[in-house]
Every structure is written in C-alpha cells, then in structure tokens.
Amino acid sequence: MPELPEVETMRRGILSVVGRRIAEVRLPRCRKRPILIAPSPATLRRRAVGQKIVAVDRAGKRVVLRLASGDAIVFEPRMAGLVLLGTPPTREHLRLRIVLDDGREVLFWDRRGLGLVRLVRQDEFEKHYGAAKLGPDALALSWQELAARLAKSRRPIKVALLDQAALAGVGNLYASELLHLARIDPRRPCNELSKAEWRRVHAAMLEVLHAAIRHEGSTLGDGTYRNALNEEGSYQNHHRVYDRAGQRCERCRRGEIERIVQAQRSTYFCARCQK
DNA sequence: CATATGTCCTGAGAGC
DNA sequence: TGCTCTCAGGACATAT
Question: Is residue A58 annotated as part of the catalytic site, yes or no?
Fold first, then answer.
C-alpha cells in the first residue's frame, strides 16, 4: 500500500546514493516467481552497470533513480514493494540488488510480487510517466488546478482522488483520511462540490500528506511497509478513520466510523461530520 | 469519451 | 490442530 508519503519516505531514505556509481546488478535467487523487470534483467544490467546516479526523484508512487546517461531506473512498489538501503525485512522476497561502488546496496523487496522495476531510456520516460499517464503531484498542485481536473466528473470524490492521471500520489488510505479532515462525504459526486469545498479538500490533502511524511508513512497491521532502513512508520497512530470501522469518531465524539466499498476498495468515514 | 469491473499476488485471519 | 476461504489494494487491461 505504499502511497505518496511512504514512497517519499523511501526516496529520502536513499538520497545518499546520489553521486555513487552502480557496480553490479544482482537478481537474488527467489523461491517465488521473480518480479517483472522491464524490459529485461539483461537490459537493466547492461544500461545501469557503470553509471553514476545523479538524482533520486519520485513520480507519484514510484521512486526514480536518474542515471548520468539520462536513463532512469524506476521502482514501482504497488501493493507490497519496498526500496531499501541495506537490510530487507526477510531474505525470502528480495527481488533485486543494486550494488554501489561504495559497497552499499539499493534493494527492491516485494512480498507479493506485484511490483515492478523498469529501466526507462530518456526518450521513453514521457511515454511511461508523462502527463498523459500521471497528473501533477498531489503536493504540487493548487486548489484551482485540483478543482479544474476533477470538478466535471460525476464520480464520487473518493474514487476520483485515486485517479493517478488526474493527480499523482493519493491512494486508498490517504483518500479516506483527507476527506475526513476536510469534512466531505466520500460519496459526493465531484461535480456537486462547491469552490469552498474544493479548497477544503486541497488544504486537507496537503495537511494529511505532509503529516504522514513527517511520521514516515503508515505501517499497517501486516507490518509490510518499512522505510529505507527497514524501520516502521508511525502515521498509523494518527489515523482518524482508516481501518477504524465501528469506533467512535474522535472529532465529533458522537458518530461511528463506517466502512463502505467504493470501486472495490474500502472507504472509511464518519457520516455524522462528513457532509 | 468517461466510467466500471476483473486481474495479478501472498499472507493474515476467520471459521469450521 | 489444520484445512479452506476471503480479503487487502496498487496499476493496468478489458468491458460497458
């Protein structure tokens, strides 16, 4: 479930690899099926080994290693992937090791194997991660732009916030959290929100995402998400609605958190104080 | 075109 | 206890 805050935490955790050179690319022998390495492990090795890492960026929910050649290595954790420096949670699901010239290693670990590592040539980056695929980063767009991108849609606001082509980075957990903070009912169609409500959604989105980054993301009950040093995040201790069905709403003190399903995903909210 | 649904995957937890 | 079943949700493919 890595979303923007978790992926940003991973990115910051490996920032010290900037300036290092890639010495080796290793594919650990994995008992389970190997993850997808696109276009192929051989291509990744051929184009990455010997290259200097010049930047570590984030593209929505992906970590991007920029190489001096202009190529990029993109880590896409999806449900259960992690980008780590050094210590994986277990040996078992270690999928890729990028050995640096100082002996450290950038690792891709993925318990479920739904993740992806892609070597993208400079001229292909736009095709995979350009504006047609990925909207502006959730931390970098104005409330007017947010409204302009979603306000014509008839979809429920919660569902629309997950559309990565509209804005990049918000996932299932933080969509519920930010709508609770904004006091907006997740079932409301986008085209029925007022300007003032879009402002509230935007302000709440920034507040929740920044707070979650400060707490290094949310490590849920399954313990899967870890930062780059294999440590837990702590934002789960600040969740107001996510995975709290049946509990009292701590804001209004009277409503009960409900769980509903929208677009096959859980949504949590307080019907009493989200209108 | 916009929106909705099915699929991949593993491990945790429920229920018998 | 140990089996089977369901569920979790990122992004994408396919369907409506």
Answer: no
Pairing of strands A105-110, A257-262: unpaired
| A196/B7 CA-to-C1' distance in Å | 39
CB < 7 A from strand C, the residues are: A 1-3, 60-62, 76, 78-79, 112, 114, 128, 133, 162, 164, 171-173, 261, 264-266
Decide: A8 and A90 in contact? Cβ < 8 Å.
no
What is the CB neighbour count within 10 angstroms for residue A126? 12
Angle CA A94–A100–A103, to nearest 5: 90
A2 belongs to the catalytic site: yes
The mean per-residue pLDDT over the stretch A100-107 comes to: 96
pTM: 0.95
Per-residue pLDDT reduced to its tens digit, A155-202:
999 999 999 999 999 999 999 999 999 999 999 999 999 999 999 999
Q: Is the pLDDT of residue A30 over 80?
A: no
